[in-house]
Amino acid sequence: MNATWSRFNMTSIVLGFAFLYLPIMLLIVFSFNESKLVTVWGGFSTKWYVSLFHNQGLMDATWVTARVGVISATAATVLGTLAAITLTRYTRFRGRVLFSGMVFAPLVMPEVITGLSLLLLFVAVGLDRGFFTVTLAHTTFTMCFVAVVVQSRLVTFDRSLEEAAMDLGAPPVKTFFQITLPVILPAIISGWMLAFTLSLDDLVIASFTSGPGATTLPMKIYSQVRLGVTPEINAACTILIAVVAIGVIIASIANKRREVQRQRDEQAAQRG
Amino acid sequence: MKSLGSIRRDFAPWNDPNAKPYIQFDKVIKKFGDFTAVNNLSLTIFEREFFALLGASGCGKSTLLRMLAGFEEPTAGRILLDGQDLRGIPPYKRPVNMMFQSYALFPHMTVEKNIAFGLKQEGMPAPDIEKRVAEMLRLVKLEQFAKRKPHQLSGGQRQRVALARSVAKRPKVLLLDEPLGALDKKLREETQFELMDLQQELGLTFVVVTHDQEEAMTMADRIAIMDKGEVMQVATPAEIYEAPTSRFVAHFVGNVNMFEGKVAERAANTTRITGATGAQIVVENAAETANGADIVFAIRPEKIKVSSKKPADAVNALEGEVYDVAYLGDMTVYHIKLDDGQMVRASALNASRVTEDPLTWNDRAWVSFRPDAGVVLTR
Known about the structure:
The complex is a heterodimer.
Chain A: H1 7-31, H2 47-54, H3 56-89, H4 96-108, H5 111-125, H6 131-155, H7 159-167, H8 172-200, H9 204-209, H10 217-226, H11 231-271
Helix pairs in contact in A: 1-11, 2-11, 3-6, 3-8, 3-10, 4-6, 6-8, 7-8
Chain B: E1 23-32, E2 35-45, E3 50-54, H1 61-69, E4 76-81, E5 84-85, E6 96-99, H2 111-121, H3 126-139, H4 155-167, E7 173-177, H5 185-202, E8 205-210, H6 213-219, E9 222-227, E10 230-235, H7 237-242, H8 247-252, E11 257-266, E12 271-275, E13 280-283, E14 294-299, E15 305-307, E16 316-327, E17 331-338, E18 343-349, E19 364-369, E20 374-377
Parallel strand pairs in B: 3-8, 3-9, 6-7, 7-8
Antiparallel strand pairs in B: 1-2, 1-4, 4-5, 9-10, 11-12, 11-14, 12-13, 14-20, 15-19, 16-17, 16-19, 17-18
Helix pairs in contact in B: 2-3, 2-4, 3-4
């Protein structure tokens, strides 16, 4: 045991975690700061949380972000799933390689380029920038992430399940909705969550494609920080962190439960 | 009475010229790109028959089954079921059901829902579905597992669910793709007999694809031996084993000794063969050969007798030396190297606990067999 808890190990763990989490801890601590100065501790207070909820600008931005996130994630999930199905199932159509490359290119495309090119497109076709364009932009860039997640599930999908359904009398469309979709649903849900998260914290593409009246939360925070960091922003960020953390914790607990249940089932099955 | 018939004595529609074929493959060709999976194959299967397609992997047997199910369309030729041409009929409209090698149970549905799936697609009323599902569960002895999901079942139980699901709709034909492939040996043997009982009970036509010859021999009324997309022989298990019509079939099923040779002299009932190494053999069952023709004489190891002295009454007796002996409990296998260099495998059933004529390595030995013990093959 001495070897595992040597001084060197301890130091590297502490330093490693400090490097990862100290900034976030600081942010959370200072969101409860009484003082208006961000770097000077003036006692404990929750007043910034109260004032946050009275800050109409921030609240509007949150609402915009939530709507953009839900709509774009949903649209991206539908499109991404369709793309994934096409890419895994129809392996022999002309231009498949080109198509799959084009679906996955945005994954590695610098956001600035994606944002700029979308902006140019919107200007060229005469779309007024605002809620619609930012949603459209988010759908475009999150779609390929959904496609990747769903495709990796479809690759391991046992096609004989679909054949069995058809063999038992279910036409293709019914087979898709009754067999394929329920089986790959967990992957589709993770794809949606990923798309929603990406949309939630995107700043660059939103800055290019958004317009008046459609300021997202990251844009709002960024613009406020440029005028000087207020503890209010710290509070807003703390809430965001809490929301994300709770989501992650719930997901991992559910996962763990499923795993335990599965093991128990398998043992029960082996006993007969 | 001498016979090479079927095990079910009163069931042999293939010998009846008036019997109506149930499934007919008529000059079927299936190509995948440049690869020919099924090559100009014709085959007839009768109603209520337990038919096995036996062959190594890649011989086209699964493709044949998938064409019957409707997952593949033949490149050329016709497939008829009960007189109806199946071309263009999608899988979900065919009166056949398939049991998949992977079982393909729907993981998000309980055992009950899996079995009911096909019945629901048919639009069967709910009370009838419930009754049929209960009946199926009873049939495969899984009543207490109705509410379980597939991953909560053992391999053998899953196999039963797959079986129940595929027979629930009472299909005209049940297709089974390596139905016992995923089970361990003991369970497989039990399940073979259960499948045969089930087929009798339901009176269905079964077409099973397998690479396991023992499985095919045990269960099937007739077996089609396939190689490279072609049928090599269709016959009852006994005929396949005792009267193979080609070297491939003789080799593929069981163990066999092959003697290369020429027809030396033909008499009324018997034919004398000169082996490539000079040995003289007299055989029956060589009616269709001509003098001087190149042939192969094939004989199963258990038809060869091994002894230390030349049997006095033997028509065919060849001398050699014991090269290897393997004692397997129920029988003993000898490898005898004949004086002309030919290696012969012979097996003797250990019918009594002590042997009167023990043979061991390097002993001189005689192998002998009756004139009707083997077959003469020309291809």
